[in-house]
Amino acid sequence: MNEARRFEAYDEQEGRDGRDRPREQGDRKPYDGSRKDEDTADDGGTDAPDATDGTNNGDGGDVRPTPGPDPDRPPRIPPPRASVEDTGRPLPDLTDLTDPAELPDPGEPVSESALPVLEHRVLKSLLGAWALAACSPEETAAVEEHLGSCGFCADEARRLREAVGLLHPAESLDLDPSLRTRVLQSCLERRPPRIPVPQWATPYDAETARLDALLQDFGDAEWHAPVRLRWFRGDEPTSRRTTVAGVIAHLLTVDGLVALALGLDDPMGDVAAERATPSARTEAYWRASHYPPTRVVRAPWREQSHALVRTASFTGGGAGELPVSYGDFDLPLRDAMLDRAFECWVHAEDIAEAVDYPYEPPSGSDLHQLVGLAARLLPRVLSARRRAGLAAPSPGRHLVPAGEPGRSLRLEIEGSGGGEWLIPLDSPAAVGSAEHEVAHVALDGAEFCRLAAGHVSPAEAAAGQMGDRAAIRDVLLAAASLSRM
Known about the structure:
Blueprint: H1 12-17, H2 38-43, H3 84-87, H4 120-125, H5 127-131, H6 137-147, H7 151-167, H8 177-190, H9 202-215, H10 220-223, E1 226-233, E2 236-243, H11 244-261, H12 278-288, H13 298-315, E3 323-325, E4 330-332, H14 333-354, H15 364-387, E5 405-414, E6 419-424, E7 431-444, H16 445-452, H17 458-461, E8 464-467, H18 469-480
Parallel strand pairs: 5-7
Antiparallel strand pairs: 1-2, 3-4, 5-6, 7-8
Helix pairs in contact: 9-13, 9-14, 11-12, 11-13, 11-14, 15-16, 15-18
């Protein structure tokens, strides 16, 4: 084969025509180190034998180093670029490219002349990012400038902002109220307590712990935030103005009634009240203070709540019938502890409302016990209101004998902690009977408790009513009259 054939230009047609032609001997000689193969000339000699060290190739000839790629020709595959930070060279000073006097001050607002000029379609596409506060300052200024002159985009921006508000509803930072109960229940299942807390004392234990968690981060401003206590006196709503610290002082003095029944110290000390009622004790404690109550009232209140739960637990379940005097009436200890849990939750909501903080109702099991307490007290309150002429008299000539069934109202509580209770209407000693049911009222559990606390009027509380309207009205008003300061 002619030696010059090796340097002829590649004929693409010839390559296609001779693709199936068998290679002839002599078309191409083996590499002998005396020339550079065409393939190695293109890729810098990567396919050539490694003979750069000057050793013999085995056939007796001297091996000459394979020349590298042409330095004037760019490589077929560019090498990776090195970072200027890895070279050790100083970083470029961008201020050299611009006069520092011409650079904008980051703290100054973007002027209208500096706003980017964007088309309407571009500004419209930025509305979603603007509603999510994801635009740059320049884009935000341009979009807001555009909204002042385009009514269509302004309406769309308003709808997007409202949608963003629905994506991020206001949520309480507190844990689920039922979490504490679930954790304790799991722990007690693994290792029963040596001295268990009575079931009727667990709501008070839980609600005082939740209120204390709300108070622990309060500053001076929150402790002096105004709070309005609300309740019903007769059939009319009334209120009393105080502060967050004043509410805790109120809980301290009324919880002291339970402390006295258990043989503990009276938190009022030497302060004497005209009567042993919750309102009289609270007013006397407030008057005896030289200054409005402050955060210092939290420690004695919390210590007393721990002492009440601890003493009730050591006393045992049989102490549930121990009478607790409220001045005008008595309650057994089991009901008094539920009453204190009920009031602790209600006033915790008052405090949370005063500082604009969300507060959840109690857990379902605790709320069920609180609703059950109010349902048990309704027959007695109905009888007292009837004697005072505030409720319609019984249609029968005689009261129902004790233990006998009589006219009843079915109280259906929906939601967490719900259930059904048959309320006897004619006598506190009568028994509720489904056969003698004359009315049916349906309420949400938390809403019913707020009615019993005097925070909701009877006209606003009933979600569903059916049957005797007079009986329904009497029961709802009786529930509202359960409230007190």
